[in-house]
Design a protein that fits this description.
By secondary structure, the chain is of the alpha+beta class. It has one domain (about 30-190). Helices cover about 30% and strands about 20% of the residues. It contains 2 helices and 7 strands, in the order H-E-E-H-E-E-E-E-E. The chain has helices at about 1-10, 25-75, and strands spanning about 10-15, 20, 85-90, 125-135, 155-165, 175-180, 185-190. The strands form 2 sheets. It has a 5-stranded antiparallel β-sheet with strand order 3-4-5-6-7, with helices on one face. Strands 1-2 form a two-stranded antiparallel ribbon.
Length: about 190
């Protein structure tokens, strides 16, 4: 009877007195632990991709808002607003979120961000800077990784730079750049 019971239920074992005991084998337990481990790794990777995507979306949305504000400014004044190379929020560019401060100063005689009425309700992960001019921009904000060769000479232009230390190592910054002379957003180290 015990053999027949073992043939029908492989997870049953027989103790020294000949009575059947229910339980899991070590192999079954190892398979379940392995499956749970694989599912946990997939979940963590998916979560990290989702959070990185939301951070990049923040930068893309803010760059779009600053572009619209720059175009409105140019329509009213004939030139783009040169807010300067100071990043706003000034305490941004870390893994923490910071509130937007429209009075963030551009430095010196440069106007602050109130010249460009950009608003956001949520905290920001990236710090933002925008510079503008009328001659060839060269390499504004030290953005040597962006090709500004297509920038026209003697035409008003602006460059918007978003920068954050998403991995919080203090060395590698994720960057996004939007310009007046190209409709695309350039990215650098956005997977970091």
């Amino acid at each position: 009877m015990a053999r027949r019971l073992l043939q029908l239920r492989p997870t049953m074992s027989v103790d020294s007195r000949g009575k059947a005991r229910a339980g899991f084998t070590l192999v079954e337990l190892a398979v379940v632990v392995t499956i749970v481990g694989v599912l946990a790794v997939i979940a963590v990777v998916g979560y990290r991709k989702l959070t990185l995507s939301s951070k990049i979306t923040e930068a893309e949305t803010m760059i779009s808002a600053i572009r619209i504000a720059q175009e409105d400014y140019k329509t009213e004044r004939g030139l783009y607003a040169n807010v300067g190379g100071t990043y706003c929020p000034s305490n941004g560019a870390t893994q923490h979120k910071w509130g937007w401060n429209p009075a963030c100063a551009g430095g010196g005689t440069v106007p602050d961000w109130r010249a460009l009425p950009v608003h956001t309700e949520s905290g920001l992960q990236f710090g933002y800077a925008t510079v503008a001019g009328t001659k060839n921009p060269g390499t504004p904000l030290g953005l040597s990784w962006v090709n500004f060769a297509s920038a026209p000479n003697d035409v008003p232009w602006y460059v918007i730079h978003a920068k954050a230390d998403l991995n919080n190592d203090g060395a590698v910054f994720s960057e996004l750049v939007g310009t007046s002379f190209q409709g695309t957003i350039f990215t650098n180290n956005v997977g970091e």
